[in-house]
Amino acid sequence: MAAPTDLRLPRYPREPEDANAPLDFAGYRSTKLRHPSQPLVLLPQMLTEVTGPLLGPGRLGELDNDLTRQHDGEPQGQRIIVTGRLLDGDGRPIRNSLVEIWQANAGGRYRHTGDRWPSPIDPNFSGLGRALTDDDGRYEFTTIKPGAYPWKNHDNAWRPAHIHFSVFGSAFTQRLVTQMYFPEDPLFYQDPIFNSIPDEKVRQRMISRFNLERTVPEWALAFDFDIVVRGREQSVFEDEEDED
Amino acid sequence: MGELLTTPSQTVGPYLSIGLPWEDGPFVVPEGTEGAFWIRGTVTDGAGEVVPDALIETWQADPQGGFDHPDDPRGRAESGFRAFGRCPTDENGEYRILTLLPGVLPGEQGQQARHIDVSVFARGLLNRVVTRIYFEDQDNSGDAVLASVPAERRDTLVAKKTEDGYRFDVRLQGKGETVFFAL
């Protein structure tokens, strides 16, 4: 085992305060009893924190990235292609990495026993997808545009249409779960989950971009959504070859 | 600093169980693996109510203290050990992870005691919270991270021995609140 002085580890600088939502956010009622009340303790980034699970092909089924072909029939709704790149803060693509999504159907209903919104369940839509990023860090899903749905957070509360995204990055420090939104959604202004991000410019990073180039004529619209996880500090110990 | 600004975190919401759990998620090692034990625990909120819509993820060294990862400067351990566990809480707020004891690791000041890093996701958590599991029957005396935690809260990070492994409860808020870390 190497002596501690030989531990040349990458560092992932902490993000500015407004890069994320506060854990206690009154507008989103469910945070009330679930946010830690004690200050967080700073965890030095050692071996466990700068490494992370590299989850690759073994986790993927053939149709996992096409949510419209997972059943005998086609799901209801507007077919969309969602594509984008998984990058770190220095613009390096994160390759061969697992991206997981889940979402409501076109009527805004999740295939879940807990969802009581009386919009029909679509027998041809499970709302679950997985994909691997390629050498450019690019992923792609074919799915259905999810609908908005009401929830009980506040008077006449509706969630803007969104797709949940889960990515691992390549280190424990980079683990991220987020939500992708759609351009110009009229429900943004009243949604406390979207608005939990304090800085308006930061919020915009969760909104996908309509991508005409990637649409398929007479078949599917397309949206582009790049996901950026925390970058690592440039260090003199890094190989030049790692640069992209 | 990086050049691109990061995508912010959002809550997993109540329906995380559609997309995140895996059938083999709780099994860091297959059942029957020599030396394997269960880590079991309950996730509770500030009112002491169980949290039935949370997900626990674990990440750890292998029993020899290695990581199957290119950034381990001591060399990549290709032991075939997945090192990653994932389990949603059930209706009683309980999770379980079958794993092996991680090895002792070098640290900045001396050695790090055997530990597992944990992420907790749930409805009502806008970002994951991160904690660490230590083991009550191991030598934790030289661990700098544990020493940096206020003494009266340290035991929230130490899993207690049980019949088939260890118990590690997660209290998100209030009395006995688990120590959570900023990364």
Automatic annotation (TrEMBL), chain A:
The keyword Oxidoreductase applies. The keyword Oxidoreductase applies. GO terms for biological process: 3,4-dihydroxybenzoate catabolic process. Residues 8-17 have a biased composition (Basic and acidic residues). InterPro entries: Intradiol_dOase_C, Intradiol_dOase_core, Intradiol_RC_Dioxygenase, PCDO_beta_N, Protocat_dOase_b. Residues 1-22 are annotated as: Disordered. Keywords: Dioxygenase, Oxidoreductase. PROSITE patterns: INTRADIOL_DIOXYGENAS. Belongs to the intradiol ring-cleavage dioxygenase family. NCBIfam families: protocat_beta. This is Protocatechuate 3,4-dioxygenase subunit beta. The lineage of its organism: Bacteria, Bacillati, Actinomycetota, Actinomycetes, Pseudonocardiales.
From TrEMBL, chain B:
The keyword Protease does not apply. Gene3D superfamilies: Aromatic compound dioxygenase. Keywords: Dioxygenase, Oxidoreductase. CDD domains: 3_4-PCD_alpha. Pfam families: Dioxygenase_C (PF00775). SUPFAM superfamilies: Aromatic compound dioxygenase. Its EC number is 1.13.11.3. One of its GO terms (molecular function) is ferric iron binding. Residues 37-174 form the Intradiol ring-cleavage dioxygenases domain. NCBIfam families: protocat_alph (TIGR02423). Belongs to the intradiol ring-cleavage dioxygenase family. This is Protocatechuate 3,4-dioxygenase subunit alpha. It comes from Amycolatopsis carbonis.
